[in-house]
Design goal:
- This protein is an alpha/beta fold.
- The chain folds into two domains: 14-45 and 141-464, Metal-dependent hydrolases (TIM Barrel, Alpha-Beta Barrel), CATH 3.20.20.140; 46-139, uronate isomerase, domain 2, chain A, CATH 1.10.2020.10.
- 49% of the residues lie in helices and 8% in strands.
- It contains 19 helices and ten strands.
- It has helices at residues 14-24, 38-42, 50-54, 59-67, 81-91, 99-112, 123-133, 141-147, 164-171, 193-206, 214-230, 250-262, 269-290, 306-312, 327-339, 356-364, 387-400, 420-438, 446-464; strands at residues 29-31, 150-154, 177-179, 181-182, 235-240, 293-298, 300-301, 320-321, 345-350, 375-377.
- The strands form three sheets. The chain has a five-stranded parallel β-sheet with strand order 4-5-6-9-10, with helices on one face. A three-stranded parallel β-sheet has the order 1-2-3. A two-stranded antiparallel sheet has the order 7-8.
- Strand 9 (345-350), helix 16 (356-364) and strand 10 form a beta-alpha-beta unit.
- The longest helix is centred in the middle third of the chain and has 22 residues, at 269-290.
Length: 467
Amino acid sequence: MKRLLSEDFLLHSETARRLYHHYAADLPIIDYHCHLPPADIATNRRFLNITQIWLEGDHYKWRAMRAMGINEHYITGTAPDEEKFRKWATTVPHTLRNPLFHWTHLELQRYFGIHEMLSEKNADEIFSHCSGMLQKPSHSVHGLLSHMKVEMTGTTDDPTDDLKHHKAIAASTSKIKVLPSFRPDPVLATHDPIAFRAYTEKLAAASATTIKNYDDLLSALLNRIDFFHSAGCILSDHGLEYIPAPDENAETEAPKLFLKILNGQPLSHSEQGNLKFDLLLRLGKMYHAKGWTQQFHLGALRNTNPRMMRQLGANTGYDSIGDFQQAPGLRKLLGRLDETDELPKTILYNLNPADNELFASMAGNFNDGSIKGKIQYGSGWWFLDQKNGMENQINALSNMGLLSNFIGMLTDSRSFLSYPRHEYFRRILCNLIGRDMENGELPGDEELCGNMIRNICYYNAKNYFGL
């Protein structure tokens, strides 16, 4: 029987194999956006078993299990960890052609040396083997990150966070750089006056101030940006459906709209957009002053199942691709920041594949010759971080911009076992470039193409973020 996911997995030509094994395979990883818990890194957590590290919080797996008719008791419920793992193992053979099949077995191979397919037949044996290895120092959180050559990871953090875990990591002997990222989504939730006011109070407490007007809000945000900067932050992030296209008077209306929502009055749809846009504009200027990179993850339609939202809450596997209009707001925000020479380095991620060329071409509108690859069309994200999605993103970027400037892959994951996704991306990239070389569409210059691959997989990000 042919070995599952062989060393030449996804590499369909001799040229692709040389490119991957000689230029990409051994590079360190810069994972500049993820959702790993900083507390687990600070404490060098050891997970009790494979279920805890693999299934807790992984809504990709949860969705697959639900599709198989598995009761929620075995997914997010109170079933014993061994039983949850058995249910996942029963699901895995049915994930053929879903990226979960590849990810699952890459992770079993790279971290635990298991080269057979997971199924209900070997579930107990694999649970015992992996859980035993997780008790060893080599499989603590630090051990797992070191094993995968992770050089830097960028967590995603609320502006009110005290960043105590990041400070503890920085003060430790760990060689892995763990940097916070500023994610002010709650202050952009202009559709919900109650949540907005509650978060404003939380922000005021964190910045040791009072927030009674719009200037106070901006001062509090700047206070937190200064604090994050002192802790090594170099990135912000925003998870939005879309960037609103504002009315002409948005900037002058923003102070009034802020007082209105602060007093518990709902804003109209256009008023919500105007306040949100002005906040993004003001934040962008603050990021530019710090030399940060801003990220926009756009296009997710979240919490689509009201019943399960009430039962389980957000981020539990009930989100999907949205079909929002993206171009007008993106153009307005990037253009306004560019007009005053306050446009930060920016990474744009889309979730709807229909927007690939839109985002790739929009990025090219605002490169200004000051920084190589200043505006990035980011890697395939969430529903698009699979083989087809990555290939389409690479092709769109190649057609609309310069692939050679691309800063490459990130995990966007909550799991410490997700780092083989960088390998997955690298294999896909090498296969595409190798195919084009063998077809005569690219020069047969292995050093030229191999160095481009090295840059995309590691060096571009290292230089872009000044690491």
